Amino acid sequence: MRILITTLFCLVTQLFFFNSEALAAGEYQALNNKLQELIILDAGRYKPFDTYAQNKLLQFSGKSKIKAKDQNLDAYEWLSMVVFQPEQVENAKLFLINHPQIPEALEIEIDHKRHYSYAQLRDHIDSIDKFANSAMQKEESSRTIVDQEFIRIFSNFHNYNQISNSMALFQSKSSLKFFSQGQIAKELNISPSPSIYELSLKAKDIERLIESPSKELNDSALKLGFALFSWIESYREYLNTYNSEEVFAFIASPETHINPWTYFFALQNKVEKYNAENIETVFELQKSYDSQNLEKFTSIIDTLNKKSKDLIQEKKLTQPKISLELFYNNFSPLSKAKLLYLLSFILALLAFASNKKETILHKVSSGAMLIASILHFSAVLSRIIILERAPVSNLYETFVFVALIISILGVIIQRINKKYIFGNLSASLSSFILLIIASKYASDGDTMKVLIAVLDSNFWLSTHVVSEMIGYAGVSLAGLLGHLYIFKKLKYLNNQSPEQEQELNFLNKSILGMIAFGLLFTFLGTMLGGVWADQSWGRFWGWDPKENGALLIILWTAITLHSRIAGYIKDFGLAIFAIIGTVVVMVSWFGVNLLGVGLHSYGFTQGLAMNLLSYILFELIFILASMFIYQRITKKIS
User: Fold this and answer.
1) Rounded distance, CA 465 to CA 390, Å?
2) CA 340 to CA 207: how far, in whole Å?
3) For the purposes of burial, counting CB atoms within 10 Å of the CB of 298, is it exposed (0-12), middle (13-18) or buried (19 or more)?
4) Reduced to 3 states, what is the DSSP secondary structure of residue 179?
5) Could you read off the pLDDT of 546-579 as tens digits, one per residue?
6) Backbone Cα Rg of the chain
7) pLDDT band at 93 (very low <50, low <70, confident <90, very high)
8) Which of 334, 395, 446, 602 is deepest in the core (most CB within 10 A)?
9) CB of 369 closer than 8 Å to CB of 361
C-alpha cells in the first residue's frame, strides 16, 4: 500500500511539478540572503532558515556545500532552490549512499563519489520502500549494515520529498496549460499556468462549469477538476502515510508552527481558528520569489517572523537568537579553530622533533593555539547564549566542550613553561581530533537540540555533566602527555643530561597535575550526579553503566596517584598509568553506551565499537612495545 501511494505521488509530482523553466541561482542571491532569517520550527526548536538548511544538507549528503547547475551552492542557497524552484536541483548529486550494494540492488550506476540525485532515487522509489520496509520489520539487533543504510536512505528521501513539495501548493504549473487553455481560462479568470492554490480558490466555479451545457466547458472543467483533486488528495494521502513530523514549519498557526500544506488542509476542513490571511501571505511569498521582487519578499519575511515571535511570546517561550545564530553559522568559529589547531600541531611537532627551546616555531604554534582557543571559546559561548543552557546535552556537544577544556589546559601548561612545546603539541592534536569526531555527529541533525526529559534541568546539567566533562578533559590530556613522556624518556635513556632531566620532570609534574585535576572534577561530577539521580530516580546510586564508568575513572585516577605517591610506580610507570586512564575515559565516555542498557539513554550511540576497539588495541600495543623497549635499554645500561 505504501509503495502504491509513493508511486502515485511521484507520478503526480512529475506531471505537475518538474516542468518549470530553468532559472539561475545567482539571480536570486539577494532573496536567498534574506530567506536565511526566516524562523523555522524544527525538532522542537526555533531556528533560522540558514541553520535548517545546513542541518538538512549535512543530513542528506554529509557535505556543507553542493554543486547544482554548475554552481557550488551554500546550504541556504541549495535549500532555497529546493523549496522555491525544486526542479533546479533534482539532478544534483545529493544523497550519500555508503554501501555499494544499495545502488546495485536498485540497479543504479555506481557513483565513485557515493552521491546520487533525487531524480535517480525517485525513479526507484518502489524498490527503496520495499527494501526499507523489509528492514524495518526486522529486530533492530538483527539488522545488517545494508538494512540500516536502506532505512536511512528511505527516511532521507521522504524527508527531502516533503521539503521540496512544501511550497508546491503555490507554484505555477506549466503542465496545467493542457487543462486551462481556451474558454475555461476566461470563465475562471486564471493565468495560463495556474498554481494548485489558485485553482483551489476556483473550486466552486469549476464545479459549476462541470454542469455546464457546453460540452467544451464541461470536458475542460472535468479534466481540470480531476487534476486538482488528484494533486491535493495524493499529497494528503502521502502525508498521512509518511509524515512523522512537520517539515519546513514556518507558518504561525493558532497553536504552533506548521507548513503550508497542513495550514491549507486545516482551511479546507474549515477549522475555525485558521484564517486565509496566512496562507495568502505565503502565496505572495512564492510569487515575490518568482518575480524577484526583493522589497516585497523582504516585507513578507519580516511579517512572517513577526507573527512567529508573537506566537512564541504568547506561548511564553524564549525568543530565538536569530541574529547571533546567523553570525555563528556564517563565521563558523569551530571550523576556523579546527584549522588553527592543525596548524599549531604541525608547528609544535616540528619544534618537538628539532628539540630546540623557544624557537620561532614555539611562538607561532603558541599564537595559533591561543587564537584557536579563543575562537573555540566564542563558539561554545555563542551556543550557550543561543540555547540558554550548558552545551553538553549530546555527544556532539561533549566532544566540542571537552576539546575546549583540553585546549585551555594546554595553553596553561604552555604558559607555565614556554621552553617546552608539550602543552601545544598534546592539546592541539587532541582538540583537532575531537572536533573532527564532533563533525561526524553533525550529520545526525541539528547540533543545537532541545533538551530531552532526562536532561531537562539546567542547574544539574550545568554542574554534574559539566564537571564530568572537565574531568574527562584532564585525564585525557594526562594520557597524551604520557605519550610524550615515553617518547622523551626512551630517547634520553642512554645519555640523560641535567637539562633533559628538567624537561622530563616538567612533563611528569604536568601529568600528575592533570590526573589530580581530572580526579577532582570527575569525583565532584559523580557526587552531583548522585544527588540529581536521587531527585529524579529516587536513588543516589544504581550501578548504571554510566555511573560505573564514572566510578572507574575515579578509582583508576586515585590508584594512579596513590601508587605514585607510595612509590609503587615511578615516572615511567606514571606515564603508562596515565595512558591507561585515557582508555578508561573513552570506555566511560561512550564505550558503555554500546551495551545499550541503562537509564542514561540520552548518551547512546551506534557505530563506535570498531573505532573504540581499534583505539584500545593501538594503546595496548604502544604500552607493551614501550615497556619492552624500556626494559631492553635499561638492561643494556645496567
Assistant:
1) 9
2) 67
3) middle
4) coil
5) 788 889 999 999 999 999 999 999 999 999 999 9
6) 30
7) very high
8) 334
9) no
Q: Where are the beta strands (DSSP E) in 37-153?
A: 39-42, 45-48, 65-68, 71-74, 93-96, 115-117
Q: How far apart are CA 118 and CA 116, in angstroms?
A: 7
215-242 and 203-210 helices, crossing angle to 10°: 130
Do residues 95 and 117 touch, judged by C-beta distance below 8 A?
yes
Distance CA 553, CA 529 (A): 15
- Bridge partners of residue 45, in order along the sequence: 42
For residue 71, the cross-strand partners are: 68
Distance separating alpha carbons of residues 399 and 386, to the nearest angstrom: 18
Residue 613 and residue 616: Cα distance in Å, rounded?
5
The string of pLDDT tens digits covering residues 16-34 is: 444 444 444 567 899 999 9
pLDDT at position 20: 42
Q: Grid coordinates standing for 558?
A: 586515585
Q: Could you give the residue ranges of the DSSP H alpha helices within 356-394?
A: 360-387
Residue with cell string 542498557: 597
Is the pLDDT reported for residue 376 higher than 80? yes
In which band, very low, low, confident or very high, does the pLDDT at 131 lie, cut at 50, 70 and 90? Answer: very high
Asked if residues 411 and 370 have their Cβ atoms less than 8 Å apart, the reply is yes
Report the C-alpha gap between 253 and 197 in whole angstroms. Answer: 18
Picking from 157-166, 311-320, 373-382, 385-394, which range would have the lowest pLDDT averaged per residue?
385-394
> Measuring CA to CA, which residue among 481, 370, 388, 375 is closest to residue 435?
375
Q: pTM to 2 decimals?
A: 0.87
- The distance between the two most distant Cα atoms of the chain, rounded to a whole number of Å, is 114
Cα separation, 550 vs 529, whole angstroms: 10
The secondary structure of residue 248, as a DSSP letter, is: S
